[in-house]
Amino acid sequence: MTAACVRKMSMLLGDLHIHTALSPCAEADMTPGNIVGMAKLKGLDVIAITDHQSLGNAAAVIAMSRQLQGPIVLPGLEVSSAEEIHLICLFSDLERAARLEKIVQDNLMRRLNRPDIFGTQLLLSPDDAVLGHFPDLLLMPTRLSAQQIAAKTLAFGGACLPAHVDRDANSMLTTFGLIPDDFPAAYLEISRALTPDAFKRQHPELKNHPILQSSDAHRLGDIAEPGHPLPLLEGRDELGVAQRLILALRPDGKQ
Amino acid sequence: MKPDALIDLLDAEVLAGTPRQDLEIRGGYACDMLSFVVSRLKENQVWLTILNSVNVVAVASLAECPIVVLTESMTMEPDVCQRAQEKGLLVLATPLSTYEAAARLDRGLRQENEHAPR
Questions:
Q1: Which residues on B lie below 8 Å from A84 (Cβ)?
Q2: Nearest alpha carbon to residue A98 among A56, A148, A130, A69
C-alpha cells in the first residue's frame, strides 16, 4: 500500500455475508424485500449478497434496495473450492461479479438438486415473486482450488476472503491447518460465534491478520445487528463507497 | 451386524436417533469430502467421518445410509442432532480414528461372515 492509499476503518456498518432463498440451506423468506427491509431496520449501510456459486438473486436485491433507499448492496458469491473450502468473493458491481460466476458455473460439479433433501433454490424477482428454481445443487463444490478462485476474483477486480475460518466445516483454517502465506486475502472472515478478539486469542499466530466478521445469515433474524465496522480505502475520494470498500478488502489496495 | 453390536465394537455413544434392531449393516464407507460421499455412499453402509454439519444429515438421507459414525470424538450441535432424529438417522460418536473404526468394523463383519450359517 502506498502512503496515498491507506486502508482505514470507516464509520460504515455492514454485513458482507448474507444468503438469499437461492441457497438451499437458507430459509424461503430470505427474499429481496425482506432482506433489504431487515437490513434497513438494523441500520446497516452496506450488505453483500453471497449465495453459493450463483448470483441468481443479487440483481433483484440491488434493485429492491434502490427502490427502498436501503443499504449499498455488493454482489458476491460464496464459492466452494475443490478442497471444499468456502471463499467469500465480493465485487462492487454485477458485471465484474458475473465474470467470476461464469467461471464458477463452468467448473461446478453438477448434480441435480433434491429440494426435499437439501432445500429449495428459489430464483426471485425484486418484489419477491418466485421466477423459478435453480436446477443444480449449489452445495456441490467447483473443480477450482482455493488459490485459483482467489486469483480469478482478484483478476476481475474483486476481493476474496476465506469464509468463517473459525468454524469446523468448510474453513480454510480447519482444512489446511493454517492460512498459507501466499494466499491472496487481506482479510479473514469469522462467523458470529465469537468476537474478533476471542478468535485472535485462540489463534495467536493470526493476531496481526485483519479480521472481518459477518453473519452468514440464512435466516432474517441472523442478519448482523449492530452491523460490523467496514474498512474503506482513503485517498481515493473520486471512487464510490462500494469501490473503496472492495479496494480496502484487496491485498494491495489496488484495482 | 446390528447397530447394538456396532456401538459395542466402536466404543461408541449415541448422539441422535435410535438403534433399530431391524437394521443389518453390511459395510462401511470412510470419507470427509461431501462431493465424494454424495456420489459414492451406498445404502446400508455405515458412513465414518469427522464432518458434523447439517449437510452430513442431508447427504446420509440422500444415500439412504442409516448410520453415521463421527470419529475422533467429534460432536454434533443440538440442532443438527434434532435434524438427524427427524430424518431417522442414527448418529454415533467414537473416540477412535477413522482408520481404527473402519478396521474394527471390517474385522467384525468378516468374523460374522465366518460364523454365519451356510
A1: 33-35
A2: A56
The tens digit of pLDDT for each residue in A2-50 reads 445 688 888 899 999 999 999 999 999 999 999 999 999 999 999 999 9
Question: Residue B43 corresponds to which cell in the numbers above?
Answer: 445404502
The grid coordinates listed for A89 are: 468473493
Q: How many CB atoms lie within 10 A of CB A41?
A: 11
ipTM score for this prediction = 0.90
pLDDT tens-digit map of A169-179: 999 999 999 99
Smallest CA-to-CA distance from A17 within A34, A42, A35 is with A35
In this complex, do B54 and A118 lie within 8 Å of one another by their Cβ atoms?
no
Compute chain B's Rg from CA coordinates.
Answer: 13
B-chain CB neighbours of A118 within 8 Å are 58, 62
Q: Which of B38, B52, B61 sits opposite A168 (nearest CB)?
A: B52
Closest among A142, A131, A159 to A74, alpha carbons compared: A159
Sheet holding A86-90, edge to edge: A159-162, A86-90, A72-80, A46-52, A7-18, A228-233
With contact defined as beta carbons under 8 Å apart, do A112 and A118 qualify? no
Distance CA A77, CA A138 (A): 11
For residue B40, give the H/E element and its range.
helix B34-40
The overall pTM is greater than 0.90: yes
Cell of B116: 454365519
Q: Is the dihedral of CA B74, A78, A246, A37 positive or negative?
A: negative
Say if CB A177 and CB A152 are below 8 A apart. no
How far out from the chain centre does Cα A250 lie? 13
> Are A93 and A240 a contacting pair, CB within 8 Å?
no
